[in-house]
Write a structure and sequence with these properties.
Layout lengths: L19 H18 L14 H5 L37 H6 L7 H22 L3 H39 L5
Helix pairs in contact: 4-5
Length: 175
């Protein structure tokens, strides 16, 4: 019968932690070895170390290594290489903050902002009556106002005519 993921129980090996003193001693040894080796400098990540024949003669020109295919076009770097350290708030000056550019907006955000500005511009022009649609609407509104004024005048005339007919049907009023 299966008893879980591990056969024979969980792996319970002891972990080994380095002492701070050991780490410092290793770092000091590495620095001494670099000092002994002379003017050898480390290349960029991904580069091959120089051979003995190249390091001995500095007068010779460096050979250009041509990579085949896409590798010649695309420069690659070690993705596991240590990146720059984060800056602490106390080390940042106000001048540095001013020099930094505004954060780049995504395409959707830029398009949304442009659309909003275009809409505001359109409505501003529409209120002033400068757009084609606004002119058409204002013409239509003028026609409707005229029709309503004519209809109101016609109703007034009909009302007066009706009152005159009613007063003439009753006859003259005697006092």
């Amino acid at each position: 019968m299966a008893r879980g993921r591990y056969r024979g129980g969980k792996p319970t090996g002891r972990r080994h932690f380095s002492n701070v003193d050991d780490l410092k001693a290793e770092a000091a040894n590495e620095q001494e070895e670099e000092a002994k080796s002379g003017s050898k400098t480390r290349g960029e990540p991904g580069e091959l170390p120089p051979s003995d024949s190249e390091s001995g003669s500095e007068e010779e020109e460096e050979e250009v290594v041509k990579n085949k295919g896409v590798a010649g076009i695309i420069e690659t770097a070690n993705l596991n290489a240590k990146t720059s350290q984060n800056t602490k708030a106390k080390n940042i000056s106000l001048d540095d903050l001013d020099e930094q550019e505004a954060p780049q907006l995504s395409r959707r955000e830029r398009e949304a902002i442009q659309a909003q500005k275009a809409k505001e511009r359109y409505w501003k022009l529409a209120e002033q009556g400068k757009t084609e649609q606004a002119r058409i609407d204002l013409d239509r509104l003028a026609i409707i106002k005229k029709q309503r004024a004519e209809a109101a005048a016609k109703r007034e005339e009909e009302k007066k005519a009706k009152e005159e007919r009613a007063s003439s049907a009753r006859g003259p009023v005697k006092k």
